[in-house]
Amino acid sequence: MKNNILEITHLSKNYQDKSGEIEAIKDINLSVNEGEFIVIVGPSGCGKSTLLSILANLETKSSGDIKFSKDDIKLGYMLQKDSLFPWLNILDNCLLGLKLKGKVSMEDKAYVLKLLDTYGLSEFIDKFPSSLSGGMRQRVG
Do the record's keywords include Nucleotide-binding (predicted)? Predict the structure, then answer.
């Protein structure tokens, strides 16, 4: 039996604007078991980004419960608009988090270069974000 690592019950998010309250997501229920891979799909404006932003703790929920069963869950989320630094080249953007933690080892740099190659970006490591397409910028992110 697989362990339930994420349980979302009756999750809702409301926003206020000039015309009143907007219901971004309403009564979402979801459970994810260990080892499962899920995809959130739907039409534009249905609340996908809002749900992921709440899970990433970038936004607060209006109501409902979110329970993670483990402290070491790794959640990856790429926003629609990337947050690359325009004054850093692609390689330096990718290494920035490691640089902020202290030093970057040769193994770290080799791993990042391997990932960039895997995503078809190795020939762009010295380029700046403005020279990449939107999809390429998201892959860098």
Answer: yes
